[in-house]
Design goal:
Blueprint lengths: L2 E3 L4 E2 L5 E7 L3 H11 L6 E2 L2 E5 H9 L3 E2 L2 H10 L9
Parallel strand pairs: 1-6
Antiparallel strand pairs: 1-3, 2-3, 3-5, 4-5
């Protein structure tokens, strides 16, 4: 049971770079961790939270494991929690 965060490499709102926060166990674990970070519900997108670079360090300090984007996606898929966009 691990919450994972990738590097803030994704450009987003407010001129910030953004990370993805996921769980390799359950969405309940993810939502609980995001709540501890103070993330708003609107930051949740299907299977992850979008986390601004200003919160990345706090997520790691609270126990999120920093991994590459590739590793994050691999573990999300392996856990069966990946939810793709519907066309």
């Amino acid at each position: 049971m691990t919450v994972l965060i990738d590097p803030p490499h994704w450009p987003g709102p407010r001129g910030l770079m953004w990370s993805h926060l996921v769980s390799d166990h359950s969405l309940d674990e993810l939502h609980a961790f995001a709540g501890r970070l103070g993330m708003p519900g609107r930051a949740f997108d299907r299977d992850h939270y979008d986390v601004p670079e200003t919160v990345h360090r706090m997520a790691v300090d609270l126990g999120a494991q920093a991994v590459s984007s590739r590793e994050l996606l691999h573990r999300l898929i392996a856990a069966g929690l990946r939810r793709r966009k519907r066309r």
